Amino acid sequence: MDHDSYSLPLSRRPRRLRQNQAVRDMIREFRIEPAKLIQPLFVEDVETQREPIESMPGMHRFGRNDFIEELKRLVDLGIKGVAVFPKIDPSLKTGTGREAALDPDGLIPRLARTVKEAGIPINLIADVALDPYTTHGHDGVVDAASGEVLNDATVEILAEMAVNYAGAGVDWVAPSDMMDGRIGAIRDTLDESGFEKTIILAYSAKFASAFYGPFRDAVGSSKKGEYLDKSTYQLSPSNVREAMVEVDLDIHEGADIVMVKPAGAYLDIIRRVRERCEIPLAAYQVSGEYASIHAASQMGWLDYESARDESLLAIHRAGADLILTYFAAEVAGK
Length: 334
Known about the structure:
Layout: H1 21-26, E1 37-44, E2 50-52, E3 60-62, H2 64-77, E4 81-87, H3 98-101, H4 107-118, E5 123-128, E6 141-142, E7 149-150, H5 151-168, E8 172-175, H6 182-192, E9 199-206, H7 213-219, H8 241-253, E10 257-261, H9 267-276, E11 281-285, H10 287-298, H11 304-318, E12 322-325, H12 328-332
Parallel strand pairs: 1-3, 1-4, 1-12, 4-5, 5-8, 8-9, 9-10, 10-11, 11-12
Antiparallel strand pairs: 2-3, 6-7
Helix pairs in contact: 4-5, 5-6
């Protein structure tokens, strides 16, 4: 048979739309744009520092001055938002976390004021949770007798914390604690305090995942040799319907944006949420996902850039409008 002359009688040949890069670019259905990426940043209360985080290659804990310079770099790359996570001096931590979390001259409020005074055009997104501020590393107040994480006592502090941050100039508050009723309490307290323009990015479907380890090291909330069980407030990885209940409640209580965390192992949840609601949806590609891609590529088992880009594309394709990812800056800078 003459293979050069043989032709199947096909009316549809999908490969016609893959025959060169120009065609493939023109018909691409999803694109990762810098404006859709949010860069998480870790900051410590020292003037100058770029301390590498061993478990998260390429990531650093920034001192205050270096944090400001990093924001300027990200703006030049087209990044529109950063999620800020503090590493707090252990001497400032307490059982409730109240003192440091509500300090108007604490690290996050001071940074927010500096960013606004400098006129840096970027959305500052502050984590609203107590785990960086507590001695035990939980996201809430722990009852000394029972060991229970107390819901309502925690929510009271979180609402005050959100007002503290908004008053300093934080653009978005991002409650990541998974306490019941905290979105409604935060929204009401913000509005009553004159901060009705402050956006709430709700960690609505946050799962008790094995992929958070490097993050907890980065912010200093992990306990060496001790597993910190957060399953009484974070979602079970097995529960889809329960996640939908959480999303519905957060929307009803006033969330402006809902989020699924982690992202890569929960693409089905992202899709379910996208089909369920019309408000913007974010997903957090967490530290363990980031570290896994780095580790596999360092072993020569994956092509780093291809795996990185494919992982982000999958999250976007599943339905996420915004992606919090440690890859944000390098992908934006490509």
